[in-house]
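Hey, I'm writing a tutorial for new members on how sequence and structure tokens pair up, and I'd like a real worked example in the thread rather than a made-up one. If someone can provide the structure for the chain below, I'll link this post from the tutorial.
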Amino acid sequence: MKGWQQGVSDKCGEVFMRHGAKLTLGGEPTFLPIHPQGPEWSYSAVGPTKLGYAKAVAACLLKDPLRGGVDFFSPGKSYPGEVNPRWAIRILANRDGSPVFRLRSKRLPSSGSLAAFRNAVAAGLEVPPMWKLLPDPLDRKNQVWAIVLGENKGRWRAHKWPDGRLILTTAQGAAGLRLPLHTLPKSAPRRALTMEWNDDGLSIFLPPVFQKPFLHLLRVVETALISAGIGRVSMQGYLPEDETRSWIQLGLAADPGVLEVNLPACVDWSEYARWIEAVTKAAAASGLRPWKQPTGASPEGTGGGNHLLFGGPSIEENPFFSRPDWLASILRHWQHHPSLAYLFTGCYAGASSQAPRADESARDLHDLEMALSFLESLPAGDHRAMISETLRHLQTDVTGNSHRSEVSLDKFWNPGWPAGTLGLLEFRAIESLPKADWMSAVALLWTSLAARLLDHPERGGLRRFASALHDRYFLPSILWKDLDEVLKDLADHGFRLDPQIYRNIWNWKFPKLLDFQGGAARAEVRKAHENWPLLCETPVDGGTTSRFVDTSMQRLEVSANPDFAANYEVRFNNRPLRLVPVGDDHFIAGLRYRRTNLYPSLHPGLPPQIPLHLDIIRKEKAARFTLSATRYQFRAAGSRLAGPAGSPCKAGNHRDLTCDLRIP
């Protein structure tokens, strides 16, 4: 952590304290193996290797910084089109550093010790011993015992299983998720403590209960394991809400194409930075990293995001419920600056991306302007429900999905969803980056903006970018100019962030494909953003929840100084590309070209325009550079005399800076 970062973080803390706003930060960085293989590291959530990686990361974190904690294999989210629910590894540790769960040996269980454990559990809960289930229909070697548990005034009581019904279902997963609970009488609770013994070892599944009875169950299990001499066990089940706020909780979740880490809620940016550093180190030690490099392409993020969440230490202390004007100010400022949506996001942007802006959702901005003005007019009080109902229908993607949006409110106050009332703002236009300090620097930028806008609200009307949004603001030079304005504005308000770290991120996000120097003339070619359109649904292995887009198009930017613009001509595939002045000393142009025509894609009959030939011409002599399908940088291909030029590169709109090489 650099000194200037701590100084800015302290400045943010001062602003929040002065306004009585307790803002917490959460994060969801994502990771991939160095050589990802198979659908689980492309588009499917689960697969044969992901759980092993998650367990390895959990083991690293339990050594430090979650020493004394315990990890649970837990049921994850269930999505339409996916056969089985996803899974998650959830780790909990005590904030005071005391151990949550501790075993005194590493001894493997035996038949005698298993019986001793069951008897000790029954004695600890003061209930009859567990019932043994009939042979597992999926694996007859799997031995399972379970006991249905009810609770009344702090005392446990067991419920008898119906005769002949003690047989697991044929669903996939842990035995604790396959119990025949549907056969129990209506008076019996649908929860059971489960013990499973197979070739993988001993597993204990804890049912869903509140925090106090959960801790009692955990302590009984721990004591029974120690008394039975068992030192190796896999814990499974549901973790309760932290009612006493005494835990640190971290999750490792199966997500399409990536392993997602759900960071603990952090009280300030400094704590967030420490967690990003810790999980990145644990991932690296487990063979994972927060970036990838596809064959023939430049390095990029995981594709799974690195979402940042703003919230409060509790629902009662949520800083946004009573400050709808602050939230409106944040949404206005983000809308005014496309760099906040495009500079730190993934490999593609636009309406069909995972984080489209509100003005990309095919709605008239008049509705959003009305909504923000209404929120700014609300009197003092708790307006959580009104904030949600006013914004969540506008902060969506083009299909109306409230989760896939640049600033998502589906976890803010939406009682219709299981996790919809957490008081969270989720910023989704943030990608995982190859360095932990880069990721924490983005979080510091976001936190600084939140503090600046709390002190000095944004009240300017929404900007109508029209076609410039997907033209100018997809080009690296324009995005940096916009972010530079943001950084200078923050500095003017006392938040002096070092621009260099953000420039380094910009360089990585938009890699240089060519650096040309000819005397005083300078020009460079960089990768730019592209708007990949959404395609129709296509059945795939592992479910149909992934959204396919046409990735056949790529975009690049040519930028040059005045000497180059005055003395050189640029041609792509022998078609001249005109450079446009965007300042006193800067000329740029964008170019879209077709890199592939793999199935499925739009216009399957149009061939790829690769290799892409770039000629830089002066006085009839051309220096040729070629971009091939297997390389992401231009390579020198000799010199030659320039022949007659083809038709100039054309733009879809005459005011655009970007031309489309497909247009004849």
